[in-house]
Design goal:
The structure holds 2 protein chains of 2 kinds. Chain A is α+β, with helices and mostly antiparallel strands. Helices cover 47% and strands 21% of the residues of chain A. Chain A has 2 domains: 102 residues, KaiA/RbsU domain (Methyltransferase, Methionine Synthase (B12-binding Domains), Chain A, domain 1), CATH 1.10.1240; 218 residues, 4-Layer Sandwich (Phosphatase 2c, domain 1), CATH 3.60.40.10. The radius of gyration of chain A is 31 Å and the shape is elongated. The chains are: A alpha+beta, B alpha+beta. Chains A and B meet through helix 3 and helix 4 of A and helix 2 and helix 4 of B.
Chain lengths: 336, 132
């Protein structure tokens, strides 16, 4: 016999017990009963009706006025019942949406996937963790025919799904860029035009574009308003910001991007990041640059991927495992 | 079969429509919970007419289909109509205020529900509750 068929008897029993000796046991039984009735989608108005039927049966001499009052209670409960059912259906919709976003997020991971290139003189590591399901950070590597490696890291101002959709466009334009336009400044100029033409004017993208030449061990770079990276001098054990000036992508279609260069010695490390790294917030406020550098320094002797992973772990811990912004960190370490 | 209807012009007509619906529901043998559901649905439909269309009518009919018995509630008005039906049938829309208060609720309270609306011409809603 299912619950709907036996609920009247069960309810009557609880009511009877309670009327007889007001035990906590009976109250507990009614709590269990209410859980069960929610499980079987019994509406509030049905409960009132059930109550009325039960009490009329148990106490036939109740005053008419009391029974009539239950009619009003039933009527009043109608709207609660409707609100409850609406809530149930909205929950179902919410679950469906969450599932859809999960599918989209995993698709984004596939779409935006990039291979970390392998070359003999450079050890490369990268980590990118979204704050929510969809990431607004993006990084990309290209190995050129002449042996040079392009690296790009971008951050969409704005988060979530719109940012993620925009990322796919950036990735597509980077993939369709000819192999001869490797210069970081040119890359940014091209992308700037794409973004300016195709993206909503309220959406901006910051990007750092770099090119590593293994022939002369020089790193060329340009920035479109992106978080400056760090350069670690192995010889002196010091860090320096990789400053570069340039307008955000999508602001002005005529924007030009200066190119900077830096000689990389064995043991030197280039660190590129999104603002999710530098603007990592703790209870005491923003993370100080010195603190960040101290963490990096602690692990600078490790392999590139290990540096990225360990620094992420430290900052994750520092923020109580709650990322407020997408986190991306790329490490290029000259090994030979 | 006797069909009956109530013209909805002012708020008191909502009460008359409810009363008519309750009488028919009782006559057919609907229990108190279903009576409350049917009258709540009538209330919602009549209120929509009163609030958004200005005037219209609620018609109550007994229906039979094979061995099934039940009642049909029809709401008809010549008001401004509903431009986006999908929207008014969405949960959470009516509660945030605006047109077509509680149509998803009416759909839930009844067993069958259909709606036609032409902007500028009016709205026609038909819903059925079957006796179990």
């Amino acid at each position: 016999m299912n619950f709907r068929d036996r609920m009247l008897d069960e309810y009557k029993e609880i009511l009877k017990t309670y009327i007889h000796d007001q035990t906590e046991q009976a109250l507990y039984m009614s709590q269990k009963f209410s859980r069960k009735s929610i499980e079987y989608k019994i509406s509030p108005e049905e409960m009132i009706s059930l109550h009325k039927t039960s009490i009329m049966d148990l106490e036939p001499d109740l005053p008419e006025s009391l029974l009539l009052s239950l009619d009003i209670l039933l009527e009043v409960m109608m709207s609660y019942g409707l609100a409850y059912r609406e809530h149930q259906s909205l929950r179902t919709i919410q679950r469906e949406l969450i599932n859809e976003i999960e599918v989209a997020a995993s698709m984004q991971q596939t779409l935006l996937g990039t291979q970390i290139p392998r070359i003999s003189s450079l050890d490369i590591g990268a980590i990118s963790v979204p704050a929510k399901q969809m990431s607004g950070d993006y990084y990309h590597f290209v190995s050129h025919e002449n042996g040079a490696i392009s690296v790009a890291i971008a951050d969409i101002i704005g988060k979530g799904i719109p940012a993620a959709l925009c990322m796919s466009m950036i990735k597509y334009s980077m993939d369709s860029m000819p192999d001869d336009s490797q210069n970081p400044g040119d890359v940014l100029e091209r992308l700037n035009r794409v973004v300016e033409q195709n993206v909503d004017p309220t959406m901006f993208i910051t990007m750092f574009s770099g090119l590593y030449h293994p022939d002369n061990h020089t790193f060329y770079y340009s920035s479109a308003g992106h978080e400056p990276g760090f350069f670690y001098h192995a010889e002196t054990g010091t860090f320096e910001e990789l400053q570069a000036k340039g307008l955000l992508l999508g602001v002005d279609k005529k924007a030009k991007y200066n190119e900077y260069e830096r000689k990389v010695e064995v043991g030197d490390v280039i660190l590129l990041m999104s603002d999710g790294v530098t603007e990592c917030r703790t209870e005491e406020g923003f993370l100080e640059v010195d603190t960040l550098i101290a963490y990096i320094k602690k692990y600078i002797h490790l392999s590139a991927q290990d540096i990225a992973d360990k620094v992420y772990k430290e900052l994750e811990y520092l923020q109580d495992f709650q990322l407020r912004d997408d986190f991306t960190l790329i490490i290029l370490k000259r090994t030979a | 079969m006797m069909d009956s209807s109530v013209k909805i012009i002012n708020e008191w007509d909502i009460v008359a429509a409810r009363q008519l619906g309750r009488n028919v529901a009782k006559e057919l043998g609907f229990g108190t919970v279903d009576q409350a559901r049917i009258t709540t649905a009538i209330s919602e439909l009549a209120r929509n007419i009163y609030l958004y269309a200005g005037q219209g009518e609620i018609m109550i009919e007994k229906v039979e289909s094979g061995t099934k018995k039940g009642m049909t509630i029809i709401s008809r008005d010549e008001g401004p109509g509903i431009p986006d039906l999908r929207k008014v049938m969405e949960d959470g829309f009516s509660t945030s205020g605006g047109l077509g208060a509680g149509l998803p609720g009416v759909k839930r309270l009844m067993d069958e529900f259909s709606i036609e609306s032409t902007p500028g011409k009016g709205t026609f809603i038909q819903s059925v509750k079957w006796l179990r």
